[in-house]
Structure formats: C-alpha cells, structure tokens
Amino acid sequence: MSRRPFIAGNWKMNLGPRDADTLAVALKRLLADNTATDIAVAPPYVSIPAVVARLRHTGIAVAAQDLDPLKSGAFTGAVAGEMLAQAGCSHVIVGHSERRKLFGDTDDIVAAKLAAAYRAGLRPILCVGETLAERDSGQARSVVTNQLAAALVDLSLHQVLKLTIAYEPIWAIGTGRTASPAQAQEMHAAIRAWLAEHYPREVPASLRLQYGGSVKPGNASALLAQPDIDGALVGGAALNAESFRDIVAAAS
Length: 252
Prior knowledge:
Shape: globular
Strand order of the largest sheet: 1-2-3-4-5-6-7-8
Radius of gyration: 17 Å
Helix content: 40-55%
Strand content: 5-15%
CATH topology: TIM Barrel
Number of helices: 12
C-alpha cells in the first residue's frame, strides 16, 4: 500500500502572531505548487488563528503542539481540543518528548490526551522515543514499543487508522545529532513490526511513521528514502521557509 508522505513543522515556543503570519505567507508562496506531500505546521497557541487565516485553502494543515485531556473547567492556562478545533486546527501533537520530560506527561496522560484529540475531531501525531541512556543500555526498542502499547491501549481500530506516529530519538532533538538513516529505519521497522503483531494488516500497511530528530535539508533525502519512514516532524528547520520547503521537496 502506498503511503503519502507527511511533513509537519513544530514551531515550538517561537513566533508570535505577527512573525507567524510572516512565515505562513512565505510557506504559502513556496509550497503553493505542492501536490505530492501532506504538510502541517504547528504554531504556538496564540499564533494559531493568524496561521489558520493565512493558510486557508492552501492544503497546508494547522496543528496544535499539545492539548489538555479535559473539555472545559477551571484549569488556568489549559487549552482543550475542542477549542483548538474551533480555532481551525485539524491535527495535534501528543506526547512530544519535551512534554514528557519537562512537563511531566506520563504514559497515562499521553493516552488521555490521545482520547481527547479524537473526542475533539483532531488527528493526532503521537511521539515516541528513547533517551541516550536507554539506547546505550539496549532498551530502545522496548521503551518505544511500551510507549506505543500504553498510548494505544484504549483506541479503536478506526482511531488507530487515523493516527500518525513520530519516532523522535530524544538524544537527537536540539542537539545537532541525528540518527543515521540505518538507525532511524531500524526503529521505524520495529514500530511497524509491533503494529503488525497487534493489529490487522491494514494498520502497519497504511499508518504513516515520521522521523523527528533534527531533520534538516542536508539529511532529509537520506532519511526519507528509507522504506518505513513516511515523513518527518521537523523542529528548528521548520522556522525557515526555504529549509522547510527543501525538506518537503525531499519527500516528494
């Protein structure tokens, strides 16, 4: 089964509404002719409306970087999935390593956020990945598959089929280090094998797996050429329109 490439840019805590609009204008111009790749960008919460307005009818989807498990309530600073959908988001990142490490998102919280995303009609990008210590001790595969098992435990087959999984080796995020294409392929193949063990054939055949560890124009082609890598979750390089365009081109 052919899997359409999917490139998503995670802008993290960068670009307020004015600067986000400027980048969206550039992306609209540079990616206007793209027909071969699915594209999404994930601005900070405050910039979502500006980016949604600018990218409407371009084919570039807008994602949120996180969401709260609950729908509403007295939770200062929290943003519900229903709010994100109303603001124009179609996707949401769940379980990013920075949320897990810096904000205490446990496996249970990640599973609750996945459920909240589906409740709100959002398509989740689920992040999984291991630390350098876990890789060096030979636990990388078990750590990643345990994260998958915990996150997907209560999802229906219909929900799983709408999921994107992003493998992000934590040791390669923001460090300038990148997993080699062979290392990245090995883990993506392990993820697909785990899916094949637990779900009908259509799931491993159709589910898109992104690589998310310091993807740049210089390494994108080699990574995206791997048979089990169907796209990328891009960090710093997504803040530059030309760099992001080049990564999208590498996937086409």
